[in-house]
Amino acid sequence: MMRYFVFLLIVQIQSCLQIASSSKSTIKTLPGYHGDLPFKLETGYVGIGEKEDVQLFYYFVESTRNPEEDPLVYHICGGPGASGLLPLLEQTGPVNLNYIDNLTLTMNPDAWTQVANIIYVDIPAGTGFSYAKTKEGWISSDTILAAQANEFLKKFLRDHPKFLRNPLYVSGISYTGIVIPKITLELYEGNERGDQPTFNIQGYIICSPLTDKFKDFNSRLEYAYRMGLISDDIHKSAIDNCDGNYVDIDDSANAICANSLRRYEECISHINFENILDPFCDDKDPKQDCERVYRKALDKWANINAVQKALNVRQGMIGEWETINYTLHYQQDKNDTVYYSYDIFSSFSDHKKLLSKNCRALIFSGDHDFTFPYVGVEQWIALLNLDVEVPWKPFFVDDQVGGYETKYAQNGYSLTYATVKGAGHSVSIYKPKESAALVRGWLSSQTYLSKIQDIGLPNRLPPCIPSSSWTPPLYLAGTRESHGSVRCSSKSVFKRELTVAEEHEEDAVVVAERKSRICASRNEEDDAVFADGEVSGENVVRNTERENDDEKKTAVQISGAERSTIEVQISGVSTTSPMFFFFIPDFTFLIYSLHFITHRSDEIYSKNEPQIRFEFNF
Ligand SMILES: *[C@@H]1O[C@H](CO)[C@@H](O)[C@H](O)[C@H]1NC(C)=O
Ligand SMILES: *[C@@H]1O[C@H](CO)[C@@H](O)[C@H](O)[C@H]1NC(C)=O
Ligand SMILES: *[C@@H]1O[C@H](CO)[C@@H](O)[C@H](O)[C@H]1NC(C)=O
């Protein structure tokens, strides 16, 4: 009955893996950048399918902070059909391509690669430098894309086993909101099936997601109303007459609705969907050139022979390189083509399935994006029926409101939803600093607001402690190279006064000492430094010293509680992850381990908030 988190023992499993047949090369220099690249860039192809008919090109950038410990973000671009070069050079990657200044590359001060290793993949075939060797290989769909993405990652990590233990996040933008939940879910399910390799999957990040091919478009009406693009009466008339459908209407069947939607269309037809404040450009007008400057710059740069040589691209496999392949790219109501079937209508059910996993989600939108407005995002998040942990509140960047965020949590699942103020669809293009701050904060906070319900006992109970009064002691253990302190506080609500010591004299060693401490404390020689914590709340919380046990010197036992909250705040430096043990005397077992990124104390632990909170309901 115990609902516990299984510690993912990430062992090096190279020995039993076959060598994946892929090609990779380290890129030392790039045209446009003066000198050697000050970050580690690798490119390569991974063959997909039994015969490796599909050759997916990728860019892998190692974190410039601590590649061994930092998260591994597996990023899949939108479209479908948008190349990984787009985020690499214009959004989250280490360098920016300057399109005004003759295609030079300069360091991106807001790169996510300052805190994460990122794989950018060109997927499916037809995207960026990816191609197929057979006719069938060019044919894809949402389902095929998701399966190929999982196969890619498996092969990539087999070939890069040292990144198997990094906390893994799947990330995407825009259209890939349709497939990211599926890809993430498959990683959890693969682990549950015992597939190899085991992924240290921690969650997913989606920027400006498309989640439902009806609802997200339908939410535009409400968004237009909130942003002042339509009037009260247009809004009211549509609400009253259109039966909640502002997308697929039959003009003849409902003339009043059709009329209000015509007025709505008129109001929004000359609005730039990517950012409602940007000038409108009519891409149906052949006299207008609506291609964004940065895309043009990318198209130019990536088609330079020297660039393709530097990136180690196989020559002659694709025609012209395009930032976005519009053959694959989805638009509202676009029908399937011979090349691509848009076969997943909604990813809501996959989000729902992830609720039962030990999973963190970050969903964020630009509040000026009209493509997939935040209004629609809020609607599906509300339907997940999660408990609100932290209600809607502003987050700050440079003392200014960067946007707003809400945190939800349920069991082992948590979701942070944020809007970035003033940003359009590609949030990091419009607000690079704010989105970087948001993602960095989220990646490093690891706030597991886990409500562990049904916490019970493993099969074998310690004989002397009745199950009705048993609650888990908490161990906090650090590892080598840790310096700093841990503050723990615990608040418990008790059903009744209960002292296990009195009932079970023989177990005195476990509950003998009544100190007001909760954290395990170990001294410096013990390769970890954790200061004593503090305990607030009722005095039934006990501390236990077990002198004979080197490994576990101190434990705490909370007895007879109905509900306990344990908050842990860590400050200081550690290059490895502290682990949390819940312990039953004589039946030690580990149920939770956190991958904590603790080497940037200034950045991560300067906040006065607890980084971890465990809630137990007994
Ligand atoms: C960019 O072009 C200008 C003018 O043609 C030139 O002066 C400058 O050196 C170029 N910059 C680089 C980095 O090549
Ligand atoms: C775009 O994708 C289609 C379908 O995969 C492919 O046939 C075509 O070659 C691609 N275009 C480019 C420029 O790569
Ligand atoms: C998609 O196909 C349907 C049925 O064949 C057709 O009525 C509709 O016009 C098509 N839509 C587009 C955008 O081509």
UniProtKB/TrEMBL annotation:
One Pfam entry name: Peptidase_S10
Domain of life: Eukaryota
Coiled-coil ranges per UniProt: none
Keywords on record: Signal
GO biological process: proteolysis; secondary metabolic process
Gene3D superfamilies found in the cross-reference section: alpha/beta hydrolase
PANTHER family: SERINE PROTEASE FAMILY S10 SERINE CARBOXYPEPTIDASE (PTHR11802), SINAPOYLGLUCOSE--SINAPOYLGLUCOSE O-SINAPOYLTRANSFERASE (PTHR11802:SF385)
Assigned protein family: Belongs to the peptidase S10 family.
Listed name of the protein: Peptidase S10, serine carboxypeptidase, Alpha/Beta hydrolase fold protein
Gene source species: Deinandra increscens subsp. villosa
Phylogenetic classification of the source organism: Eukaryota, Viridiplantae, Streptophyta, Embryophyta, Tracheophyta
